[in-house]
Amino acid sequence: MWSKMFGKECLTYLGKAINIGALIVLFSFIAFNGCSKFGVDETNLEQVANYYYQPGKEKELAPKKAYEFLSTKSKEITNYTEYEKYCNEGKEYKISEIKVLSEKEANGKKYGIVSVYSKKEKENAIFTNSWILEDGKWRRLSIKKLLEEAGNAFSSGDYAVALAKANECLAIDPFSVNAYQLLGFAMNKSNTDKFKREDRTMDDIVRSLLSINPEDSQVLFFAVTFSEDLSIAKNFLRKMQGHVGYSTAAFNAILKIESPREKLKFLDGIELTTDLAMLKMYAFAQLEKWNDFRSLSNNEGTFEKIKEKLEESDPSFSAGWAARLGFCFHVADDDYTARKYLEYGITRDPNNELIRKLAKTLD
Question: What Cα–Cα distance (Å) separates residue 14 from each residue in 20, 216, 227, 285, 319?
Answer without folding.
Answer: 7, 19, 14, 24, 16
